[in-house]
Input
Amino acid sequence: MVTNKKVKVYESLRQRIIGGELKPGLPINEAVFARELSVSKTPVREALRQLERDGFVENVPGRGSAISHIKPQDIREVLEIREILEVGAAKRAALQHGNEELRRKLEEGRKLLAEESNQERVHEWGSWEDLHLGIVKAVGNQTLVDMYLGLLDRIHRIRTFYGKRFTQRRLHEILSEHTAMLDAIVEGDPERAEQAVQSHLRNAGAFLIGLAAPERE
Output
């Protein structure tokens, strides 16, 4: 029973952290969480230990536990792993000329580039993280997909926290970069796909770290 309650608490807190409801640096009060979730402190404490192992909770000397901050090094590490996985996936997907889903997204991207005055649609398409997952899925390797899915919590958390601070210029760059990635894959050009994905992820890293660094100074 305690294990089931721990899972319930863990999933609730994890989603609230990833979704940005529980902000980085927020002090953790076990009694408050226990009351909110109608459980004792024991499953809350166990869930917090798991969240700490996952990197979502940190111990602050002299102050107890808190929701972990997103440090520049965290962003670098996530993007480094993404580059390792996504560059290889894009090259393999290009050998197959992608799939119907990627071809459809390419056409959407091209249309948006031709009508950049539609700011709302640019934001919606440019922030669509499923595009990256779609490229990974196009390879047809479930183990690779599972490995990538293991990163999504961290990817979503970073994007949720910093997404509202993306400039219009950066959103248009994302649109162009995504379209270039898809074009290379659909056209069956592995080398160009590699360059496009690598360039996109490194540009994303530079932009995000630029946002994160001042907060940690």
